[in-house]
Amino acid sequence: MSQPSPELEGLPSWKLRLLERIQNTAADHTRVLRQGYPIYQPHYGTGEIPIQTWRTHLRALDADRSEIELHAAAVGLSDSAITAARAAGQRGQRWGDSVHSPPTMRRGEDPVRAHMVEGIAADIWQLEHMAAISVEHRLRGLDDTVTDDPAAREQFDRNMAALWTRANETAHAIELSAEERAQLWDRDDAGWLKLVSVTVRGYDDTALLERWRTYAWRGIEHDVRRARATLGRRPVAFPIHVCSYWWRAGSRTLQASAETRTVRPYSPVRP
């Protein structure tokens, strides 16, 4: 960023880290674009593999940045802050290269705890995104396209439950404050409308189905189990209705907004 931004003052570290990741991913894209171009060798012939590898790398970085920007917008970071971080990265600047980049770690903040808070924020984002995707998937009638794959539908739900368990246990382990909890998961109706407007409302059916299947990947649950094992804390019991909060909150907002669209009604099946 070229100058200090008052709107970044007071932001929690995990939100600043989103801006840092946007800028650094954009900077990586710029570096690969300008310096990573493959050198042609006569024995390559047409040389399809090296040039396509280069292009694939660029597309992957661009996709990564776009996903981080979705997350940032959905948690309330301003368009101007997101755009400034991206633009700085596209100029080749990494976060911290300028004296005007605010530190992502607050004075006196424990770096290990900050990392764990960032992990909780990532899990909550996945839960909220999955809830919106799940409801939109039903609203568009796309559930009928996966009736022959009940294991995937069950795994999607298991992944949501696993993510909430990890977020819940980590929050207990580091003793999140009331303010931190509010910042991380107290999303009101306006917040849900913001989330769906920057995510599922922009997905066509193919993109929505791709994302639904991505979140139905069994590896998500596997990763959660490994992380919980390293946490080394006795699992915290929680009632199943806690996890269903994400479906209820997402479905309420999506159902309300669906009244303005030509879609079949959605009837929640979860408690």
Could you characterize what this model shows?
The chain contains 10 helices and no strands. With 271 residues, it is mostly helical. 65% of the residues lie in helices and 0% in strands. Helix 4 packs antiparallel against helix 5 and helix 5 runs parallel beside helix 9 (219-231). It has 2 domains: 6-90; 111-258, no CATH class. The longest helix is centred in the middle third of the chain and has 29 residues, at 111-139. Residues 236-243 and 258-271 have low confidence and may be disordered.
End-to-end distance, in Å? 46 Å
Oligomeric state of this protein: single chain
Order of helices and strands: HHHHHHHHHH
Please indicate the count of domains: 2
Count of DSSP helices? 10
Mean pLDDT: 84
Provide the structure class.
mainly alpha
Strand-residue proportion: under 5%
Work out the helicity level.
Answer: 55-70%
The biggest beta sheet is recorded as: none
Instruction: Identify the overall geometry.
Output: globular
Please give a handful of descriptors for the protein shown.
271 residues, mainly alpha, 2 domains, disordered C terminus
